Amino acid sequence: MDRKLNLAAMRRVAGVLVGKHDFSAFRSAGCSAKTPVRTLKALTIKKKGDLVEFTLEADAFLMHMARNIVGTLTEVGLGRFSRADVKRMLRSRDRSAAGRIAPAHGLYLVTVFYGRPRRTPR
């Protein structure tokens, strides 16, 4: 990323996405999940040197949901979207209303919880 991101704006807007929502606007057109309703339990954004680390925790993810959320929040950081825009995206349930998908490189799964929830290792 060549341009400086407004991390404070990204963090504020991330709060809009936390909670139980219909994430249709943030899933792939090819997603075959029975329901688009998911609970995003936590979404943190941290600066680590030249990198920005996004950590998402949910009860389950839709196809490309994490990448679409990261792409949209990156566009928030670039000033392309506001908090109100992201609220409209969620309400629209329309993938074309949300931001661009983030590239898959750099994306990795940290852990999967089965049964009782545990804290994510640091």
Give keywords.
alpha+beta; 122 residues; globular; single chain; 3 helices; Alpha-Beta Plaits; 28% helix
Question: What's the order of the H and E elements?
Answer: HEEEHH
Question: Terminal Cα separation, in Å?
Answer: 25 Å
Poorly predicted spans: none
Alpha-carbon Rg, integer: 14 Å
Strand content: 15-25%
Mean pLDDT: 92
Q: Characterize the overall form.
A: globular
At CATH level 2, the architecture is 2-Layer Sandwich
Can you tell me the CATH class?
Alpha Beta
* Helix coverage percent: 25-40%
Overall number of domains: 1
CATH fold-level topology: Alpha-Beta Plaits
The DSSP helix count reads 3
What structural category do the secondary elements indicate?
alpha+beta
Let me know the number of strands.
3
CATH superfamily: Pseudouridine synthase I, catalytic domain, C-terminal subdomain
Strand order of the largest sheet: 1-2-3
The biggest sheet amounts to: 3 strands, antiparallel
Q: Helices, strands, pairings?
A:
Layout: H1 7-17, E1 19-22, E2 37-48, E3 51-58, H2 65-77, H3 83-92
Antiparallel strand pairs: 1-2, 2-3
Helix pairs in contact: 1-2, 1-3
